Amino acid sequence: MKGISLSPSNHCQLKFQNILAKQLNKPINTIPFHFTITNRQFPAHVIKCQCQRRDQNPVPKNPINTPPPLVVVGSANFDIYVEIDRLPKVGETVAAKTSQTLAGGKGANQAACGAKLSHPTYFVGQVGEDANGKLITDALSGCGVRLDYMNVVKDGGVPTGHAVVMLQSDGQNSIIIVGGTNMSCWPEKFGDEDLEVVKKAGIVLLQREIPDSVNIQVAKAARSAGVPVIFDAGGMDAPIPQELLNFIDILSPNESELGRLTGMPTDSYEQISEAVVKCHKMGVQQVLVKLGAKGSALFVEGEKPIKQSIIPAARVIDTTGAGDTFTASFAVGFVEGKSREECLRFAAAAASLCVQVKGAIPSMPDRKSVLNLLQYA
Question: Carbohydrate kinase PfkB domain: which residues (predicted)?
Fold first, then answer.
């Protein structure tokens, strides 16, 4: 597929190199850039898979002082929500109070969060050529996500990915996902031009609802360009390939995901700390653990862990998307140069607002709301 060129700017924002080098404890060779529009210039080369590109959001005309973008490569689902009093037992049928369909998926959630926090955000993912794909596209576009790399799979036999979210009365949820276009039709190997948006990112977010082979290629491309990668461990319940772990900078699991990854108990903070040590031995220098009601903690190899308590929510309506909100908000704070402590607190505030609204993408807070909460928390 013929691409459209992307021109790097001569206005190099060296401050982001210094910030990222300090936080990652290694030199960064990425040259930050800004986008310019001349006769409708857009980033180059869309990932190909018998798909058509959706050029929804033009690049800003005056981004000289804009930080490099957050690029999310991942899944997009339509979520079927059913509200129930409790989960059914084996062989039992329970009645749902209500049902509705909303846009979601870990990748789409994180992209929506980044955009709603007023950070330039690109989403690289796939939907089907169906009504549910349009639902997701419209939702992301409405949040301000740049969809230049959003692909619509034309193979009618592969539908948009979807999920069934069973929401209980206490706000907790159980989720079943069907991969659809998230797990099918990706190219076996990307060319350099296909990954241009990744190489020009300020930070890249990955998750486990797309094939490992895609994540590995993206992570390698980011590392080659000096772009930090945060890998959300949520999604596929299978061991993470060592090849992928070798190319990520921050691993972000929750307690249960950390336990499955390491094969170790994670019931207490001491056990979590021991499991994190195993992650360090697997090659991951930084581990950002989401602890639910107990907050979060960032473990950097050789340093004292940084703990962050939750910022209490006025009421918990739905926890769906809270982890995605936390991870994406941390990424936004990171690329904008906040300290690690500030990133954790910023993410905690965003997650607190998220759980007070039903749905995933609809619950992502805007920057003003997060900053207002931080003033009084």
Answer: 70-366
Q: What is the pLDDT of residues 288-302, one digit of tens each?
A: 999 999 999 999 999
Alpha-carbon gap, residue 188 to 49, rounded angstroms: 10
What interhelical angle do 269-281 and 255-262 show, nearest 10?
50
Kindly report the CATH number assigned to the domain that includes residue 302: 3.40.1190.20
The structure's pTM equals: 0.80
Mean pLDDT, the chain, as a whole number? 85
Q: What's the total number of domains in the chain?
A: 1
- 235, 208 contact by CB (below 8 A): yes
Residue 22 lies in a domain: yes
- Annotated binding residue at 291? yes
DSSP structure class, residue 69? P
Q: Strand pairing partners for 229?
A: 204
- According to the annotation, is 295 in a ligand binding site? yes
Residue 330 three-state SS: helix
How do beta strands 173-178 and 121-128 pair?
unpaired
How large is the greatest C-alpha to C-alpha distance in the chain, in angstroms? 64
Expressed as residue numbers, the domain containing 215 is 14-74+106-155+183-376
Q: Which residue numbers are catalytic?
A: 324
